Amino acid sequence: MTDRTKTSLDTYEAVLFDLDGVLTPTAEVHMRAWERMFNAYLDSRGGQPPYTEQDYFDYVDGKPRYDGVRSFLASRGIELPEGTPDDPPDVETVSGLGNRKNVEFSRVLETDGVQAFPGSIRLVDHLEKAGVKVAVVSSSRNARAVLAAAGILDRFPVIVDGNVAAERHLAGKPAPDTFLAAADDLEVLADRAVVVEDALSGVAAGRAGSFGLVVGVDRGAGADRLRESGADVVVADLGELVAE
Question: What per-residue string of b and e applies to 93-118 under the rule 16 or more CB within 10 Å gives b?
Answer without folding.
Answer: bbbbbbbbbbebbeebbeeeebebbe
